[in-house]
Write a structure and sequence with these properties.
alpha+beta; binds phenylalanine
């Protein structure tokens, strides 16, 4: 019997301990949990003691141990909830009357704005984008485009050579991408190749050693010069406005025959004559022509079955006309005062 009393006494001591255990923060709560709730809690020993309790008191003892366990659990849950509430409270202290933070928004680069606009216009009539490397080999930049070694037309495109090896160049136009596509795809081909190109020019207000182009290529059966003209007329009206007219002047490119340069009516003075159009009423915007059959054959396309047109424009030039920027260098100087003036068109 005295033994039994000890067991009951232990039980009531634990009760007191649990009552007195001070839980003041998350750490003490955790210590409490380990001691009275966790898998190795000290109350478990008490259950083992039931064998020392005489039969007539076993029920009473069992109930008392359970009550103790419940009390321990209840205290734990109460504090746990309280601490969780506290942290939630802290998280949710948001003063909705405070003014918001302003994040300074960047602006798109004018070259990107105009490039994207050109892409959007041609996408509407089924052109897809083709991009490729800026470091090219001689074949894709020159030879395949009807400019064999020693061809005088190579002088028109002052070339940067990447290595002592003259076969590796920084592309002078994105026509190189068109060659790669023609070599790898079967007509019909309808692509637009935007990208950066390089020429060894002295940097000035009107020339730079790198600039951006968008070139287009359309190859299918029965493609005619009329298709080219219609496509460029559509482009010019979308880009510069409905009243715009285009004029094609005969020109020369080694990879197109016949070739033309395209002028549009000056959209600043409506063709009346101003500084931008040098009082001619016209501004030049691009070069174009029917793809020379020799180029098609170089790229493995049957020139008896297929014909096509190509065109190429400088994005800087169009941007300068569109926004009346008078110095090409501004585009690459990264002066925020200049760059933040442009918005979508
Ligand atoms: N590739 C030419 C250039 O960079 C532009 C062009 C493309 C002209 C297609 C005609 C046809 O000068």
């Amino acid at each position: 019997m005295p033994e039994n009393n000890i067991v009951f006494e232990q039980l009531s001591n634990h009760h007191k301990e649990i009552d007195l255990f001070e839980i003041i923060n998350k750490d003490t709560l955790e210590a409490y949990r380990i001691k009275y709730i966790g898998t190795k809690n000290i109350l478990k020993e008490l259950f083992g003691e039931i064998k020392n309790v005489p039969n007539e008191r076993k029920k009473e003892f069992g109930q008392a141990v359970n009550a103790l366990k419940l009390a321990a659990e209840e205290k734990f849950q109460t504090y746990k909830a309280q601490f969780e509430e506290d942290t939630n409270d802290q998280k949710e202290v948001i003063d909705l009357t405070l003014p918001g933070d302003n994040f300074p928004l960047g602006a798109r680069h004018p070259i990107s704005i105009v490039k994207n606009k050109i892409i959007d216009i041609f996408k509407k009539i089924g052109f897809t984008i083709a991009e490729d490397r800026e470091i090219e080999d001689d074949w894709h930049n020159f030879t395949a485009l009807n400019m064999p070694e020693d061809h005088p037309a190579r002088d028109m495109q002052d070339t940067f050579f990447v290595q002592v090896n003259p076969d590796v160049v920084l592309r002078t136009h994105t026509s190189s991408v068109q060659v790669r596509i023609m070599e790898n795809q079967k007509p019909p081909i309808r692509i637009l190749s935007p990208g950066r190109v390089y020429r060894n020019e002295t940097i000035s207000a009107r020339a730079h050693c790198f600039f951006h182009q968008v070139e287009g290529l359309y190859i299918d059966e029965n493609v005619s010069f009329a298709d080219l003209k219609q496509t460029l007329d559509y482009f010019s009206k979308e880009m510069f406005g409905d009243g715009i007219k285009i004029k094609m002047r005969p020109s020369y490119f080694p990879f197109t025959e016949p070739s033309a340069e395209v002028d549009v009516t000056c959209f600043l003075c409506d063709g009346k004559g101003c500084n931008v159009c040098k009082h001619t009423g016209w501004v030049e915007i691009l070069g174009c022509g029917m793809v020379d059959p020799a180029v098609l054959e170089n790229c493995g396309i049957d020139s008896k079955k297929y014909s096509g047109f190509a065109f190429g424009m400088g994005v800087e030039r169009i941007t300068m006309l569109k926004y009346q920027v008078n110095d090409l260098r501004l585009f690459s100087e990264n002066d925020v005062r200049f760059l933040k003036q442009f918005s979508g068109i």
